[in-house]
């Protein structure tokens, strides 16, 4: 029996159908944009720059997310190629989105004359608030949920409101609202990043790397609750290592979601989360030890290209002014 309570379609105009999933993702992107513009004012960065970043970054993130997801689920798409483009039905991977967005950002920042790490720091809170809001799109679609649980666990143990409990009743079985777990974790991360960026000890790039560390920690523990994880068949010791790291969750009454053994025994997002945490921590240490005069987060941000462009009209005007004065002096002498 279909127990979905929320219609994934927000409204329709003729043949155009607007889904809540897209509206929620758009709201997350808008919130991230406003947050970046607000912080960018402290460093005299024009808001148009962040608007361009959004207009280019969002499509890049969507493409990266879809490619990442389809690459690991190719068996499901190779005979239905047009389904690859149906992103409104879900099926995008956040790590793929980050890869696509970062590639776009590296190119854009270089062309505009900004240091990647400085702008990435400003954008870190925007990324996490976008993810925090965007996860509610999974809620409406009844996707990316966790393994089976009981109604009492959701309502009595977690004290969740009825609209969430009811929506987690998928065809008669209640499931863990992993979208909510990640959204709450990201909210805590947002507060942490907003506090850290005002600390004097923060150096360039460290807020961005802190975002990756925080998000990956939460993703590692939440991912194992899901039943739709991308996975691969890894060595037994790798699976054992990952499961051992996750075991503290059992102390809080959680159980791992079912993962088809024929599909794989290691969840890709969990292994990638571990890798990202290690790399991010290593980068912070190495950059502090090897980069001389590493700027602090609060130091001014210099744009190497806008300064030249801005000075051209001034130089031109000054040159014309001197030329006029010299001509007047010549005329008087004559």
Automatic annotation (TrEMBL):
It is a multi-pass membrane protein. GO terms for biological process: lipoprotein biosynthetic process. Its EC number is 2.5.1.145. The chain crosses the membrane at residues 20-38, 50-72, 92-109, 178-196, 234-254, 266-286. Keywords: Cell membrane, Lipoprotein, Membrane, Transferase, Transmembrane, Transmembrane helix. PROSITE patterns: LGT. Pfam families: LGT. Catalyzes the transfer of the diacylglyceryl group from phosphatidylglycerol to the sulfhydryl group of the N-terminal cysteine of a prolipoprotein, the first step in the formation of mature lipoproteins. This is Phosphatidylglycerol--prolipoprotein diacylglyceryl transferase. The gene is lgt.
